[in-house]
Amino acid sequence: MEALSRHIELTTHLLTEEEKSFWHFIRIEPRKWIYPDYGTEMVEFFVIAIFGDRVIYYDDIEEGFNISEYKEYGKLISGGANQNDFHEYISHLFTFISSGKP
């Protein structure tokens, strides 16, 4: 978790001021959530942000950031195999949300 927090801290400077504000609004301290449908085993990923019924988490297997829905705190519903970097993911997400498109 220290390496993840350090990576986020070191790359936050790549965000615009608006993106930084957005990030500070949705972020949480990284917490492990379970993802029960990852192949044949249950795995845990670090969730770093919550917004509505979605979270941003770090997949340390694929080494990238992803988004998931959730209904129950602590349990991811869906996932991806993206290998997005933190600042790119926050930037794309901010652009998508601020565009006002569903």
Describe this structure in words.
This protein is of the alpha+beta class and 102 residues long. Helix content is 32%, strand content 34%. It has one domain (2-98). It has helices at 2-11, 17-26, 86-98, and strands spanning 27-38, 41-51, 54-59, 64-69. It is globular. The model has no long low-confidence stretch (mean pLDDT 86).
Present the secondary structure layout:
Layout: H1 2-11, H2 17-26, E1 27-38, E2 41-51, E3 54-59, E4 64-69, H3 86-98
Antiparallel strand pairs: 1-2, 2-3, 3-4
Give a quick summary of the entry:
The protein is of the alpha+beta class and 102 residues long.
User: Beta fraction of the residues?
Assistant: 25-35%
**Biggest sheet: strands side by side, in what order?**
1-2-3-4
Largest sheet: 4 strands, antiparallel
**Which sequence of SSEs, written as H and E, runs from N to C?**
HHEEEEH
Shape: globular
Q: If you average the pLDDT, what whole number results?
A: 86
Per DSSP, the total helix count is 3
Rg from Cα: 13 Å
Helix percent reads 25-40%
Task: Provide the number of structural domains.
Answer: 1
**Strands, total number:** 4
What distance lies between the first and last C-alpha atoms, to the nearest angstrom?
33 Å
Task: Outline the low-pLDDT stretches.
Answer: none
What structural class do the secondary elements suggest? alpha+beta
